[in-house]
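Quick board copy: two proteins, each given as sequence then tokens.
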Amino acid sequence: MQWRRMMALVSSLSLAVGLSCAQSKKEAQIVKTGAAAGTATIKGVVKFQGTPLKPRMISMKQDKKCDALHKGKPVPSDEFVLNSNGTLKWVLVYVKNPPKGNYKPPSKPVVLDQKGCHYTPHVFGIMVGQPLEIFNSDGFLHNVHFIGKKNPQFNQAHPTSAVKIRKQFKSPELPPDSYFKCDVHPWMKAWVGIFDHPFFTVSGDDGSFTISGLPAGTYEIEAWHEKLGKQTQKVTVKAGETKTITFTFKR
């Protein structure tokens, strides 16, 4: 009887050790394949130097509703926006060589709106699998035409503000290959960067950008502007460190 009790105890201990080892192995796999988390930050500004591009003025007279929204006046294009402090707006900035990991896309959707017969925002980033919600604040006919090389194209009429279009992308893709246009209003365009990681942003009204949550390492930071091309800088950051860089586009 005592021998049987000892054998049962040994069997229970073996099972517990086996389960513990299996759990440890599973946790190790999660750590190995999971998204990298970090405390480093890379921030900066995108400056412009030289002769600014002359703003391209858009006449909307071919559509009376669009024209009325702007009181019959031409509207400047968003393709080259020079901020008051000499910096550039609408520059897509991203980590070209992101840390390896399986990054879960946010459940919060990115919003693309059609307002004033313009797409807004003009440039934006989104993660693979993250919801994209497309609104029509104008309330009259537009059509949402996505062009891409790695993601399926779609072309969908958007007649009223009551309709909301919801999409997701399956593959990483960068402009100029990926963008939206409107076949009804040919001046409408928006550029989208599609990423399999969260380390991207777009410069704003002061030309600044911030990419945070990076593990320590050396990264290639790339900045893309639709008229001025691309620039890349190599940056090394330590854990908890913030590095500041400047991109200067010249013309």
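And the next:
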Amino acid sequence: DLAWMASSVDFSREENIRDAERMAAMFLALDRLPVPLIGRVHGAAMGGGTGLAAVCDVVVAASDAVFGFTEVKLGLVPAVIAPFVLAKIDRSAARELFLTGARFGAGRAKEIGLAHAVVPPEDIDRTVEAYVAEILANGPEAVRTAKALIAAAWNLPPDEAAGLAAETLATRRTSAEGQEGIRAFLEKRRPAFHATLDEDRDG
């Protein structure tokens, strides 16, 4: 935002800290969103725009999309978005892209794990809708639990992660949603997941 950038030139150090903390809180809130977050990238997504892609669970990029950690071009660093970006891409790619500030295309974004699908611009909405339909066909509480499990198990020692996995699976298997999914599979029918939502939440 050019207006914000112009106003930030006169910020004191303390004002800059508060501003960065507000921005970090926004990224953290998006990263911790309990439901799936799908990014649709078309055009230029520089700096914070690339950071927004990093907090999405699924990123669909148009083939003409352009990404970049361009902060160093302005004498700045991608500090606020760094924790989220480093959870998506490896350190080698971060070293190259953070230090050069070079722009890169959607193909490279997919190669390093920042994007998941690269499609022609005219197909981007159709691809996003396909991802949405795929997710909506799943058990909604299972999707939420799967997302929470990724965050919880990410840095756990193997023995603790195994314990968490066992507890999580047992809870899901005995949930109304899990029971409905298993029965539907055995009976060769489509599960009625949404009918079990209130039962799981009341339980």
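Board note added afterward: Residues 2-128 form a domain with the 2-enoyl-CoA Hydratase; Chain A, domain 1 fold (CATH 3.90.226.10).
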